[in-house]
Specification:
Number of strands: 6
Shape: rod-shaped
Strand order of the largest sheet: 1-2-6-5-4-3
Structural class: alpha+beta
Distance between the termini: 174 Å
Radius of gyration: 55 Å
Largest sheet: 6 strands, antiparallel
Amino acid sequence: MGKYIDELGPRSSRRARRRKTNRVLNILIGIVLLFILLIGGSLFWNNTDDERADSATKLTTKKTNEEQTKSNSDNRLTNDDTENAATKEDKTTDTVNYEPKDDVETMDDQDVIVTEGSDDPNVIQTVVKANWEPIGTNQTGEHVSSYDKDSLDWEEKLQAIAYALGVAVDEMTVWYVENGGSPHTAIGTITTSQSSDVYRVYIEWVDEKGWKPTKIELLKENDKANGED
């Protein structure tokens, strides 16, 4: 019996030591596992926070881009409206400031003297423009007034008359062109395709500068309708 007790004692002691060792190992393993869980959880939450921050950044960037796009669109609309308004204004200005082609001046310009009536009972109105200028000439040498329809002087007479009326030569019907009382003056009786009015246009020759209008008379009736030019 004593021998059995002696043999049991050391064996029991070893078992106790093993159990103690196992407990220590289990505790260490538990600590390690807990540590692993803590580290894993920390990484997981960090990743989640990063993803949330990234998502928030993307949403902010998207919103900013959308606002910028809308702003650019509004600016384009504003610019388009401004350009359209400017274009409309330019068109209106062009209409208001319209000038006849080929620098032809009309009787609506300033510095125009209009006189009603005349000593001639056939005259309704007399018009004189202060800024009429000679039309220029291609003639050389001493000027000789000509009423030959094929001559350069005749052609330049008609150009001066058309200039006074503010029309093109081919818009006129020339009823009569006569000497105005001297070799350097002439008078044309004219109607135009633009109206039924009858005009008597006075022109004079300026040396080296050509024919220049001096007066227009608006007539009651065409007193040269049966005449010859």
